[in-house]
Fold:
Amino acid sequence: MAEEFVNGFVHQNGIAVITHNPPKGDGEKKTKIWIILVVVVGLICLGIHIFMVWRFKRKPKD
Structure:
């Protein structure tokens, strides 16, 4: 089979086959860090909200 790699495409017998090889390692690590960061910030905001509701709850009218 005659193969030739030109500009990100593999040409096999006159047919262009698109190949995609993203760099491994850094992308997955950054994604996990962002997920953890979003979860932590969400939990902090939830904790602040619960504290504020508890601290400033309305007194029932007599």
Residues 17 and 55 are 63 Å apart (CA to CA). Strands lie at 3-6, 9-12, 15-18.
